[in-house]
Model the fold of this input.
Amino acid sequence: MITKHVVVLPYDKHWARDFCEIKSEIQEALDQLALAIEHVGSTSVHGLSAKPIIDIDVVIKDYSMLDAVISALERIDYHHEGNLGIAGREAFKYEGKTHLRKHHLYVCPRDSEELKRHIAFREYLRSHEVPHLRMSAKSAVVPHRF
Done:
């Protein structure tokens, strides 16, 4: 068993602004290719402690748009990694981008089950008070088994 230290911080009001800055850069590159750019994951929930990494889903019509999206994102230094074993989303890594908060970028067709899961999770947490999740943690140790 390998123990990985994961930093979890109290909610930071700047996460919403950080998302907007990343979204703006992506939106400019994608223009009409993106139907929506969604802030998902724990940093999208007001008051929730989280790893300080912004999770983003770019919503596209369907996979027929993917090649054009890959090309547009490559122009701004994002590189397609494939679905990394999770159907319904395509992962992208980046280089540089020190002007932006660390983030994970995924591209999902609008009918993707993975996109629906991300949105449902976010909306559930936004609409339900989950006190044990709204901890004011400084850090946490999470064991991972590989």
